[in-house]
Amino acid sequence: MRASAASAATSRARLGRFRIDRELVAIGVLGGLLSGLLGVGGGIVMVPLLVIWARYGQRDAHAASLGAIIPISIAGIATYGVAGHIDVRAAAALIVGSVVGARLGAGFLARIDERHLKMVFGVFLIGVAALMGVRG
Amino acid sequence: MSGTTLYVALVAFGVLAGVASGLLGVGGGTLIVPFLTLAAGLSQHNAEATSLLVILPTAIAGTLTLRRRGVGDPALALRFGVVGAIGAVGGALLALALPAGALRIVFAVFVGLVGLRLIYDGRRAEARAG
After folding, report:
1. Does the pLDDT value for residue B37 go beyond 60?
2. Do A59 and B95 touch (CB under 8 A)?
3. Where are the domains positioned within chain B?
C-alpha cells in the first residue's frame, strides 16, 4: 500500500498548483501537437495512448479525449484564426451537417457490424492519402 | 464548385463525416481536411484551420452527451486538455511555418496511417469474432 502511494506521488508532475500525472501531460501534448499541426481532433493518438499507457478503460479514454479536444481545438482556432485562415461559412455548413451525421452514426453503431466497414473505409482512406500525395 | 452547390455539398459532406465519426471512430478532421482541399478548393492551411472550427462544437456536444450519461470526468479532461492546448499552439505554429506542399504530404502520410490502422482493426475484430 505504502509503496504504491509513494510511486503515485513521484509520477505526479506539478504545474504550479495544478496536479496532473506525467503520462497525461505527455499524452495531452502529443494530442495537441497533432491537432494543431494537422487540423484534426487529436483523439486518434490520445485514445490509444490513454488506454495503453495511462491504463484507462476504452470508454473513459474516449470521454477524456473528447473533453480535452475542447481546449485543444480552441487553441488551434485562435492560432490559425489570428493568421486569417478560417473559412467561417464553410465551417458553419459542415457543422450543420455533422450534427445530423453524428446522431445518425451513433444510431447505426448499435445496429450494424462495423468491422467490414472499417476495412473498406481504411482502404478508402489510403486512396485519399494517395490522391493528396499526387495532387498539388 | 461554387456558390450554392458548394454549400449544399459542404452540408452533405458534414453529414457523411459525422456518420463516419459516430460509426467508425474516425475523427471528422481526417475527412474534412481532404474534402476541403480536394473538392472545395481551400488551401491546406485554410482547410486545417476551418476543420478545427468544425471539431470544436462536435467535441462540446459529445462531451455533454457523455456527461449526461455519467461517463468520464470532465474536470480531468479539461485539465489535460489545457496542457494539450499548449501543444496545439506549437503544432499550429509549426504548420504555419511549413509550406502548403510539405504540410499536405505530412497530412497524406497521416491519413494513410489512419487507413492502415482501420484495416488492421477491422481484421483483428473479425478474426476474434471468428
Report:
1. yes
2. no
3. 3-129
Of A35, A121, A125, the CB nearest to B91: A35
Look up the domain containing A26 and give its range.
1-86
- Is residue A32 within 8 A of residue B86, CB to CB? The reply is yes
Residues in A closer than 8 angstroms to B46, CB to CB, are 85-87
Residue given cell 481532433 in the structure block:
A41
Assembly ipTM: 0.92
- If one compares A95 and B4, the residue with the highest pLDDT of the two is A95
Q: Is the pLDDT of residue A15 over 50?
A: no
In this prediction, residue B16 has a pLDDT band, given cuts at 50, 70 and 90, of very high
Residues A67 and A97 in one domain: no
Same domain flag for A18 and A81: yes
Q: Cell 485562435, residue?
A: A78
Considering the domain architecture, whether residues A61 and A3 belong to the same structural domain is answered as yes
Residues of chain B with C-beta less than 8 angstroms from the C-beta of A108: 19, 22-23
Report residue A27 CA to chain centroid gap: 10
SS3 of A97, please?
helix
**Any A CB within 8 A of B84 CB:** yes
Q: Measured between alpha carbons, how far is residue B59 from residues A22, A33, B89, B103 in Å? A: 24, 17, 18, 24
* Judgement on whether residues A82 and A130 belong to the same structural domain of the protein: no
